[in-house]
Write a structure and sequence with these properties.
alpha+beta, single chain, 71 residues, 3-stranded antiparallel sheet, disordered N terminus
């Protein structure tokens, strides 16, 4: 892993690291803009997540709960 950029958030002076692992894979800090896509991933995999007693499926029943967790 290596850090490719250091960016400032527009709302404040916090620094966000973007880590690029391969040409097409990038790891970054979640924002509220990501909430709907993240919720859909959880929703589509809800049964699989629930079968192991993992609490993600219950913890995020809707998009708003994902947004609250990101804040």
């Amino acid at each position: 892993f290596f850090i490719t950029k250091r960016l400032l958030w527009p709302q404040n002076t916090e620094v966000m690291n973007i880590i690029k692992t391969k040409e097409d894979i990038q790891i970054s800090i979640l924002s509220e803009d990501d909430a709907e896509e993240l919720f859909l991933l959880i929703y589509r995999n809800r049964e699989h997540l629930s079968q192991f007693g993992e609490g993600t499926a219950k913890k995020y029943p809707d998009v708003e709960s994902v947004k609250q967790s990101i804040r």
